[in-house]
Specification:
8-stranded mixed β-sheet; two-stranded antiparallel sheet; alpha/beta
Length: about 350
C-alpha cells in the first residue's frame, strides 16, 4: 500500500433534497478515535488533496475527507443546477449526522473553507439563511449538533471576489477533456499549476495529479475527476446563499442571474461572509499563499483583528491555494492542531 493511501474508502447515501446522491469518503486513522479532523476541499479539487497531511495526522486523528458531489467517486448530479453552496452544505450536515460525529476540528480549502466557516458559526440559525424550503429547514433543525474544536481556513476570506474567482474558472475551462497516459496528465498539471502551488518535487506532483484525475474505463484514458457540470454557467451562485437545493434548474433562474451567467462571474458583487465569520469563536488559523489574489494580504490582516482573530501564516512563492503537502505547511498545521 502506498504510504499516503487512505485506510478506508466508502460511500454514504444522502436522501435529503430532491436528488438523492452518494458522498464518497476517504478516511485515515482509527475509527474509534474521538479526535476527528474533517477536511473539505476546493471547487475542482478532491479528497485526495489531503492524502499527505492525513498520513501525518492519522495517529492523532481520525481524518475524514469527503468528496463533494460531482467530485472523485461521489455522485454526479443529473440536475447540474444543483451544484451550489446550499446543496453542498446540506450534504455535509447530513454526512456528519450519518457518521455520528459529535466533535471535530475542520480544515477547509477555498470553497471548502466557506463551508467550514458556516459550520463553525456560533449562531447555528445562520445555517437556515441558505434555505427557504420549510421542509429542509425542519430537517436541519432536527440534525444532531456538532461541536467544532479548531478551524483552519486555507486561502479563503470573509469576502469572496468573483472577479478574481472568474480568472481561476476560465483556467479550469481550458483543461483537456482527457489525457492519453498518466505522464501526459502529470506534465500538464505541473505546467498549469506550478505558478499557483509553488515548487513541489516530482513525487509530490504525482500525488497532485492523482488527486486531479481518474482513469475512465470506457474511454481507456485519464480524465479530470470532476463532473464538468460543476462549471455549468448557471452555477455562478455556487458560493452564494439563499438558493434551495433541488429546486434550481436552467429554466427558473432569474433574469439577473441569467445575465451574470451569460457575461461571467466578474460581474457579481463581492460575497460578504463577515456575519458568519465574526460569529466564530473557536480557535482558528488562517493560511495564505503570498501570491494569492483570492485572499489578498489586506483582507487577511483584517480577518486577524475580527471574529476568531486567527493566527495568520503566509507562504512564499505560493498562490491559491497552498497544497498542504509541503513540509513548512504541514509543520504549521501540526503545530496548530497538535500543540
Amino acid at each position: 500500500m502506498n504510504k499516503f493511501e487512505e485506510d478506508r474508502n466508502y460511500k454514504v447515501k444522502i436522501f435529503v433534497g430532491r436528488e438523492p446522491c452518494e458522498i464518497n469518503v476517504l478516511e485515515w486513522g482509527d475509527t474509534a478515535n474521538g479526535n476527528v479532523l474533517l477536511c473539505l476541499h476546493g471547487l475542482t479539487k478532491s479528497a485526495r488533496d489531503f492524502s499527505v497531511l492525513s498520513s501525518f495526522l492519522k495517529n492523532k486523528y481520525r481524518v475524514i475527507c469527503p468528496n463533494l458531489v460531482g467530485r472523485g467517486d461521489s455522485s454526479w448530479l443529473k440536475n447540474k443546477a444543483n451544484y451550489h453552496m446550499p446543496f453542498y452544505l446540506l450534504n455535509i450536515l447530513v454526512l456528519i449526522n450519518e457518521l455520528k460525529l459529535k466533535k471535530a476540528d475542520i480544515i477547509g480549502t477555498s470553497l471548502g473553507g466557506v463551508l467550514a466557516m458556516l459550520l463553525s458559526a456560533t449562531h447555528k440559525s445562520f445555517l437556515l439563511d441558505f434555505f427557504t424550503n420549510e421542509q429542509i429547514k425542519k430537517i436541519i433543525k432536527n440534525l444532531r449538533p456538532i461541536e467544532i474544536g479548531s478551524l483552519v481556513l486555507n486561502d479563503v476570506g470573509a469576502k469572496i471576489n468573483f472577479s478574481e474567482l472568474s480568472k481561476l474558472k476560465h483556467g479550469i475551462h481550458k483543461l483537456p477533456s482527457s489525457f492519453n497516459d498518466f505522464d501526459e496528465a502529470q506534465l500538464y498539471i505541473k505546467k498549469e499549476f506550478e505558478n499557483a502551488l509553488g515548487f513541489h518535487t516530482d513525487s509530490e506532483w504525482r500525488l497532485l495529479t492523482l488527486a486531479y484525475i481518474r482513469y475512465d474505463e470506457r474511454k481507456h484514458c485519464f480524465v479530470p475527476h470532476f463532473d464538468p457540470g460543476i462549471l455549468n454557467p448557471f452555477n455562478v451562485h455556487c458560493y452564494a446563499p439563499h438558493f434551495d437545493p433541488g429546486i434550481l434548474n436552467p429554466f427558473n433562474v432569474s433574469s439577473l442571474l441569467q445575465e451574470f451567467s451569460n457575461n461571467g462571474l466578474g460581474l457579481l458583487p463581492d460575497l460578504n461572509l463577515w456575519k458568519y465569520y465574526d460569529s466564530i469563536s473557536v480557535r482558528t488559523m488562517l493560511l495564505r499563499g503570498k501570491k494569492s489574489s483570492i485572499l489578498n494580504h489586506e483582507l487577511a490582516q483584517d480577518m486577524t483583528g475580527r471574529g476568531p482573530k486567527p493566527t495568520l501564516i503566509e507562504f512564499e512563492g505560493v498562490g491559491h491555494a497552498p497544497s498542504l503537502m509541503r513540509s513548512e505547511q504541514i509543520n504549521a498545521l501540526t503545530s496548530f492542531l497538535c500543540p
